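REVIEWER CHECKLIST
Item 1: Sequence provided? yes
Item 2: Single chain? yes
Item 3: Sequence as submitted:
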Amino acid sequence: MQYLDFDKFKAINAAEFRTTQPYPWINPQGLLTDEGYQRLLNNMPDVSLFEKKFGYERIAGQKPHDRYSLEYAPGTPVPEPWKEFIAELCGDSYRNNLAKLFGARKINLRFHWHYTPNGCSVSPHTDSVREHGSQLFYFNPEGNWDPAWGGDTLVLDDGGQLKFETAPTLDDFSNEVSASSIGNYSLIFERTRHSWHAVREISCPEDRLRRVFIVVANPENIYRTVRDRVMRKKVHRF
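Item 4: Structure as written out by the authors:
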């Protein structure tokens, strides 16, 4: 079966995307087929597979991004629909069109899931300078997630003033836009020196988690394999 709606994905205008302010971003609905979205939603990786990431120091004193995290590598025991979806994303059609949006010639992809529990947040930050950009797929469906609980990604406008090696609060930004995250939505954004984004503190029942699957686009030669990157992170933490 097909998970990504390639017609909708290819219809995204790269020129319009790259001139969007305050940095290139788009929050489309329905980039996954209805059947594909439901199949993935019904087979989310179990949280027991995830690593607890709580209290880790971040650059320049930014507050920790507390969450459960699972990095994908060949052999990761996730349900079969997710293996099928990732194989689809690794194909030339998706990779080449995502590279076009980011103005890159070729890219490597890595994949991970983040599950965020009650009381946790994502402080304002830009992503690693080693990245072209990311696509986030949200997996909290309507009727299962109350908008009052939060969970939307905030696209933040610093007016081009803040250095990415700083730790601003949400009050330091001149404007914010909330990207929709309930149902079959995704968020694509290019990493720039001012691509600030955040998530306000989650306020959900203890048995719920904000769930997102993230595709990260790296320059082609930055890591030889996803497994190399996972090992680098483990060595760094050790």
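Item 5: Key structural point noted by reviewer: The helical segments are 6-10, 14-18, 34-41, 80-89, 92-101, 226-237.
Item 6: Recommendation: ____
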